[in-house]
Amino acid sequence: MPTTSDREDPTAEPGLGAVSSLGGLAAVVAENAVDDTEDLPDDDTVEVKKTNSYGRRRHSNHKYHKIHEKLDSSFHPNIRPLTISDLESCVVLENAAFTDPSHRCSREKFEYRLTVSPELCLGLFCTIVPDNANGVKLSTFPPSHPVETGRKDGARSVLLAHIVATRTDGMFVTDEAMDYPRDFRVSKHNTSGLGHNDTGSTVCIHSLAVHPELQGCGLGRLIMKSYLQQLKNSEIAESCALICQNHLIAFYERFGFEYLGTSGATIGSGGWHDMFLKVDNLPPYSMKPGRG
Ligand SMILES: CC(C)(COP(=O)(O)OP(=O)(O)OC[C@H]1O[C@@H](n2cnc3c(N)ncnc32)[C@H](O)[C@@H]1OP(=O)(O)O)[C@@H](O)C(=O)NCCC(=O)NCCS
Fold it and tell me: pTM for the full model?
């Protein structure tokens, strides 16, 4: 999703520490997890599948077979909140995923959002050992972090998809909500009326992106379902809003978003549509009662 003023600011200073602790969107999908559920809304939520079953299904006709083919044995998805240390990976992923530069979130906006609302930002990572990557070279590999310091096989945790968001009031993603206060690095209080509103009850998704090498493999669906589930489970927001182009309205409707009509957002070349979802309308995560 695009943002206003999405031009890179040459004065941007990378590397500011996140001011918010990671809380709301605690990672629900554990390392090596895969999503085996059907479209939302449904009775169950994203299931956590361990390596054992994952390994057995790797060669079966599983929905992630395209990823298995592309990455061979290196597909080990891991969904976690993003932090400011993921800034470079997010910028690279965004630039790769959005062919229209005016639809991309800028580096400075990523820095702002990963600083003020990291708990609303989610990344889908994959452990990749370069020698086992089946020749696939993802542009998010170079900025990725090692899985463990000094690991001999060079395994890294590589960003494949992200969702980046802030909070807003109301039901719409406006130009103001997509903007950011220029003094965010030095000012503790945002009085500009732009960007993140800490007391807003609506999560405003600004960017959903899947690496182009792996689009159409189910990762967009997986990260969006995980994200919405975590919004529901953590009870940190009442609703979720985004804008999208015409061809993605049906995609978002499948997650439970309602079409609200043509958006007033003016970024890029326009043509945006408002989508809105009440978190209460999502199915809850449930556990069966214990036997004891
Ligand atoms: C849009 C995007 C996030 C979808 O992610 P993805 O991993 O490619 O999608 P998935 O493989 O999870 O597809 C899930 C379903 O949505 C459908 N779908 C995916 N992209 C679609 C598109 N552009 N238009 C319509 N349907 C789409 C798929 O057919 C699939 O349906 P199925 O379950 O019946 O097979 C991804 O293609 C992307 O990053 N695109 C570029 C950036 C972008 O446009 N982001 C959204 C901004 S609003």
Answer: 0.82
